[in-house]
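Researcher: Please predict.
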Amino acid sequence: MKLLQQYPKEVKGFLIASLVNSAGGSLMWPLTTMYVFDELGRSMQDAGFVILLQSVGGIAGQLFGGALYHRIGVKRLIVGSLLLNALGLFSLPFINGYWPLLLPMMLFIGFCNAVSLPAIQAFIGFRFSDRRGELFNVIYVANNIGIALGTAMSGFLAEISYHLSFVANGLTSMGFAIFFLSYLSRLDQPGDIMKEDHRPKVKTPLPAGPGAWVLLGNIRIYLFLGFGSLFMWFGMSIWNTGVSPHIISEGMSKAAFSYLWTLNGILIFAAQPLTTWIKRWFARTETMQMTISAVFYIAAYMVVVLMNNYPGFVLAMALATLGEMLISPAIPSFIADRAGDAAPFYIGVAGGMGSAGRVIGPYAMGTLYDGGGLTPVAWLAVGTAVMSFLSFVIHAKLSKSVPVHESISA
């Protein structure tokens, strides 16, 4: 509570709304596989295909959300995508598992849910330019509080009805849309004190066709950052497609796997002083934070290679969480600092590349696990973490020549 007192009222409102929305979002996604396998009686292959559709929709959503930020305006983009996401979630009880309709609707929900992500991050970067790095971290923590709460509630709601979870997620998405509609409408009022870097009403479109290729040609901003994110998310698949089945095959309780994520949530709050110390002494820039985060991931997966037991998994999760805490706020903060008006476009592109790792990681690691168990999966995770580290090193070298607040779109 003392931490929140240092922020203006509008920031506190945004943090609370973001927490509630992330809690609602986390109600659905952990239950999707169980819904398809348990409620609908489909195969695990079918459940994996639904997750794949959601991820593909998420990639397209991030790319479109970044490109449309200046074309249609921040209010219509954020509010519209959140409302469409809510409508998609509300439709699921009426579809009632009818497969030909469920598949395109899951793709649609994944798309709409992701469209708002780069827009919200870019809005924060523009509105609170003087404290954007700090606020990205605080919002990241608030979102994880919401995820912890939502995950805790999801099991109870699923016992009552899977459809209830979908409706609850839709309500939080609609509530977030209403919050943004009210919030941005107040900013549009005459006499509102705007910060110099606040641009929620910018309608100037990014150049279409060749202009978009010009933006993509500036690889110093996004390319190796995106590759680093892709490899990072690829390696993170080890938890669901390596550690999770290993725990079950070794006869451990299924709850043992959820305890690892409980540890993740606890550390995100409790280890803030440690990551602040790391940033102060070893990683003062966003590029250094990305690079050091990859070192933590390498160390985490090497622990899994060397210690195929539960204490090793606990230590690996602690190291991976520190890496996550360093990189998650650093990527949007770097892009907002360096890309100027084109920040939404580059946040969407980098986010889409990262989501691609979530798509290919589970399949590759699942195939390896079926063939050789956890050890080859862990070595693959180490390899992807090394590739992530090299990508961030290259990105750091290339980005040195990009001045802060460079307006690419200009």
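Model: The chain has 16 helices and no strands.
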